[in-house]
Amino acid sequence: MRNIAIAFLIGMFAMAALARTCTAADAPDPAKEQDVRKLLDLSGAGKMGVQVMEQMTKAFRTQLPNVPPEFWDEMAKEMNAGEMINLVAPIYAKHFSHDEIKQLIAFYESPIGRRLVAEQPGIAAESMAVGQQWGQQLAAKMLQKLREKGFIPKA
What's the pLDDT at 10? Predict the structure, then answer.
C-alpha cells in the first residue's frame, strides 16, 4: 500500500509539472475551459482525488503510529478539490473536443450520471480495499515463488 501511495503522489507531482508546462497556445478557449470545469464538478473528479488522498492518509496513520495526529490534521487541510481540478482540467481539454465535453456534461446531468457520481465514493472505497487485499495476496504468492526458486532465502 505504501508503494501505491508513493506512486500516486509521484503521479500527482508529475501532473502538476505537466500542467505548468502547458503554453498559452495549449490552453483551451474560455468556453471550453468553462465546460471542462463544469464536467469535472459534475463528475466529482476533485472530490474523488481528495477521497483517495484521505484513504492514503488513513493508511499512513496506521503504518506510522509515531506521527502525531496534529501532523495528519494539518495535511488534511492541504487537500483541496480545487487544486485537483486545476491540475486535470488541461488534461481533459487535451483529450476531448469541446463537443465531447458537452456530451459528457449531458451524461453527468442525466439521472444515471448523477447516480454514478453518488455511488462512486462507495465504489472507490470498496475497490481500494479489494485492491489492497489482492495486492497483498499477489505479493505473498510472488515471495513464495521467489523462495521456491531460490532467489531469496526461505523464512
Answer: 52
- Which residue has 492518509 as its cell numbers? 57
Residues 6+ apart with CB under 8 A from 74: none
Task: Report how far apart, in Å, the C-alpha atoms of 7 and of each of 32, 41, 97, 108, 153 are.
Answer: 31, 25, 29, 29, 28
Question: What letter represents residue 32's amino acid?
Answer: K
Per the structure block, which three cell numbers stand in for 45? 473528479
Name the pTM for this structure.
0.65
User: Per-residue confidence at 14, pLDDT binned at 50, 70, 90?
Assistant: low
pLDDT given for residue 5 in this prediction: 47
Amino acid at 53: M
d(CA 149, CA 83): 47
Residue-wise pLDDT for 111-137, tens only, equals 999 999 999 888 988 998 899 899 999
